[in-house]
From TrEMBL:
This is N5-carboxyaminoimidazole ribonucleotide synthase. Pfam families: ATP-grasp, PurK_C, RS_preATP-grasp-like. Pathway: Purine metabolism; IMP biosynthesis via de novo pathway; 5-amino-1-(5-phospho-D-ribosyl)imidazole-4-carboxylate from 5-amino-1-(5-phospho-D-ribosyl)imidazole (N5-CAIR route): step 1/2. HAMAP family: PurK. The keyword Ligase applies. Homodimer. Keywords: ATP-binding, Ligase, Nucleotide-binding, Purine biosynthesis.
């Protein structure tokens, strides 16, 4: 089976690493010359809007999927119309637009923050009346890693927030006073079978995911699965989907969904019987899904801006290192490492050391 991937970053790379043992071959449509997935397949270096590249990919691939949600809609539609794309163009298009996404979540009765559309400075006052303060103004399109967001704590900050985002269509959301951020990663096969991995607990800094923990047995697992399944079924979804959640006591509020494999699921490579990457490919290819049970507890730490020294990392017992082969730049995800153990206590000391190395590397200037 030949799989075409829209995008050539680390998610495409980890998909190819998971699919190669299954006998799959990969082709990546990615505009950047140094796409880090390129060495694992054929790289079509072209803009996502290049119609010759679409035709080449459609000829060279039996199925097409994407590793990022910000692929232009006409590109997605081209592959959808040829019966090649999974998940569907609609599932990706809704995730590209935060207002459409929130509307869908609410239609499906998944609790969310209060929200209102903001299309002009004049909309700000009525939006604030709905959300109250504090609130977050977000661009409706193209946001990731917390980019395109402005916090509003006082009414006087509202206009500055609107200007700071470039006066583009936005959404205002009430700030959910969460105790914890969680994500549920689910997969749905072509036959409609759904499976879910144990919840990930996620810690962010500066809008970027730093740490994901899998501690199986969370009492909110069933509720999270119910919400995620509702979304998978409503979208007639095929593949992996990640639903980001805020936990407030025993309630869960949906933040956004990613129509793809997700950073908070990287621990599944070593920490689950079948990884999110393998199951995404199995779903896309119409193969039976693998077991999503965790093998124990896991901790995944991202390396942002600068890779720690690999000797020091590999000195940590049992550490699984993933270096994406990308050049260093502030705020860029360059790699991650995962630790697995039978209990949370067993992991705690080594996880602390891993975080220390990641933080120290990030503080250092990028390598020349
Ligand atoms: P991602 O990289 O996950 O795609 P993103 O840029 O799409 O991020 P969000 O996930 O919406 O942005 O927001 C980034 C982070 O900001 C969240 O993980 C959470 O920590 C915080 N945040 C966003 N919206 C809210 C909210 N309504 N209430 C509280 N915190 C929020
Ligand atoms: Mg997002
Ligand atoms: Mg998010």
């Amino acid at each position: 089976m030949r799989i075409g991937i829209l995008g050539g970053g680390q998610l495409a790379r980890m998909l190819a690493l998971a699919g190669t043992p299954l006998g799959m071959r990969f082709m990546f449509l990615a505009p950047e010359a140094d796409a880090c997935a390129a060495s694992l397949g054929t790289h079509l270096q072209a803009p996502f809007t290049d119609q010759d590249a679409w035709a080449t990919l459609a000829t060279g691939a039996d199925r097409v999927t994407c590793e990022l949600e910000h692929v232009p809609l006409p590109t997605l539609q081209y592959f959808h119309q040829r019966g090649l794309l999974a998940p569907s163009d609609e599932a990706v298009a809704i995730a590209q637009e935060r207002l459409h996404e929130k509307e869908l979540l609410n239609r499906l009765e998944l609790p969310t923050a209060q929200y209102a559309a903001v299309d002009s400075a004049a909309d700000m006052a009525s939006a604030l009346a709905i959300t109250g303060l504090p609130a977050i103004l977000k661009t409706r399109r193209m946001g990731y890693d917390g980019k395109g967001q402005a916090m509003i704590r006082e009414p006087g900050e509202a206009l500055a927030a609107w200007h700071s985002l470039g006066e583009v269509p936005a959404i205002l959301e009430s700030v959910v006073p969460f105790e914890r951020e969680l994500s549920i990663i689910g997969v749905r096969g072509r036959d409609g079978v759904c499976r879910f991995w144990p919840l990930s607990e996620n810690r962010h800094r500066n809008g970027i995911l730093r740490l994901s923990l899998c501690r199986p047995g969370n009492p909110l697992q069933a509720l999270a699965e119910k919400y995620c399944e509702r979304l998978l079924v409503a979208l007639d979804y095929v593949g992996v989907l990640a639903l980001e959640l805020f936990q407030c006591g025993d309630e869960l509020f949906a933040n956004e969904y990613a129509p793809r494999v997700h950073n908070s699921g990287h621990w599944t490579i070593e920490g689950a019987v079948t990884s999110q990457f393998e199951n995404h490919l199995r779903a896309v290819a119409g193969l039976p899904l693998g077991c999503t049970e965790a093998r124990g507890h896991s901790a995944m730490v991202n390396f942002i801006g600068n890779m720690p020294d690999s000797r020091q990392l590999l000195d940590i017992p049992g550490l699984h290192l993933h270096s994406y082969g990308k050049s260093a730049a502030p705020g860029r995800k360059l790699g991650h490492a995962t630790l697995c153990g039978a209990t949370a206590e067993q992991l705690a000391k080594n996880t602390e050391r891993l975080i220390e190395l990641a933080d120290a590397a990030e503080g250092a200037p990028p390598h020349a």
